[in-house]
Amino acid sequence: MSEHPGHGHEHHYTHGYEDAVLSSHRHRTAENSAAHLLPHLREGMRLLDVGSGAGTITADLARIVGPENVTAIEVSEESAGITRDELSRQGLEGVEVRAADAHHLPFADAAFDVAHTHQVLHHVADPVRVLAEMRRVTAPGGIVSAREADYGAFRWWPELPGLETWRELFIEAMAANGGTPDAGRRLLGWALEAGLSDVEPGAGTWCYATPADRAFWAGSSSQRITAGAVAQQLLNAGRASQDELDAIGEDWKRWADDPAGWFVLLHGEILARA
Questions:
Q1: Which GO biological process entries does UniProt record here (predicted)?
Q2: Which end of the chain is more exposed for a tag (fewer CB within 10 A), N or C?
Q3: 140-165 pLDDT tens trace
Q4: Quick one: CA torsion of 233, 236, 240, 241, rounded to 10 degrees?
Q5: DSSP for 143-198, written as a single string
Q6: Angle, CA of 185, 188 and 192, to the nearest 5°
Q7: SS3 of 47, please?
Q8: Quick one: which of 123, 268, 101 has its CA closest to 189?
Q9: What's the pLDDT score for residue 44?
């Protein structure tokens, strides 16, 4: 089994579902979040999206393979409803969205041609089990695709102390919830452990450096750490006071206002054959 802090398959989604989180996730597209997969997709492929979240990536994938060929799962009916709302907003009927546990996918062997996941494995209790399930439900020769962040590898300028504290607290909160904050660097090893073959490893980035991008990223990050689910978790655990969290928010504002402000998120990627 993988070296992982989680016990059992309990789920606690660190980020929560408040507006700052969903606003951030709606900036995700297949182009900026699954570019390694796109050249391999064709109309008519049966595709499973594991952890569809805000639904924007799901929508892009559905436009390529056909909405009637896409099944998306989320951890709860609440979060599945978020995906459904986005698909409906984009006029994409025919995608099946259901609540399911990624550790025990409710599908037959070889039911799909492609199984995709994005920023999900660093939240789950057993990422190797999830990848093995994705392999099981993918037809022989089909594609399993994953992309995961690596919080320890995020870099930024200027190096404001509040941003370093932000990272330390986020890593601590995610680990306390049974997640793996450095999932990006582990993804290749997890894929091999899950029995995937012909694994193509890679990496990708998101970069926030223009004034508009800085304002967006700082606003979302500041709101999450000062008033979101993570903030409440840290306050409840006695890991930070509201004043301390507000000070981190102020450093996010300083970063956004700096013309030299630059922030890069590193992601590990894999494209494998079932």
A1: methylation
A2: N
A3: 999 999 999 999 999 999 999 999 99
A4: 120
A5: EEEEEEE-GGG-EEES--HHHHHHHHHHHHHHHHTT--TTHHHHHHHHHHHTT-EE
A6: 145
A7: strand
A8: 268
A9: 98
Residue 115 bridge partners (DSSP): 48, 144
Amino acid at 115: A
Task: Identify the structural domains of the chain with CATH numbers, from first to last.
Answer: 19-273 (3.40.50.150)
Instruction: Tell me the sheet residues that pair with 268.
Output: 148, 203
Once rounded to an integer, what is the mean pLDDT over residues 193-212? 97
CA distance 112 to 77: 22
Number of H helices, E strands in the chain: 10, 8
Rg (CA), the chain: 18
Q: Are 255 and 214 in contact (CB under 8 A)?
A: yes
**Residue among 153, 263, 255 nearest 209 (CA):** 263
Confidence of residue 101 (pLDDT cuts 50, 70, 90): very high
Token representation of residue 14: 């660190």
Strand partners, 200: 271
DSSP per residue over 186-245, as a string?
A: HHHHHHHHTT-EEEEEEEEEEEE-SHHHHHHHHHHHHHHHHHSHHHHHHHHTTS--HHHH
Contact predicate 269/187, CB 8 Å: yes
Tokens of 40: 């391999």
12 pLDDT band (50/70/90 cuts)? low
Q: Provide mean pLDDT across the span 212-232.
A: 94
C-alpha 36/C-alpha 109 separation (Å) is: 25
Whose tokens are 């928010």? That residue is 249
Q: Answer whether 38's CB lies under 8 Å from 30's CB.
A: yes
User: Residue 68 gets which letter from DSSP?
Assistant: G
Read off the pLDDT of each residue in 23-46 and give the average, rounded to a whole number. 91
Length in residues, the chain: 274
Whether the CB-CB separation of 71 and 96 falls below 8 Å is answered with yes
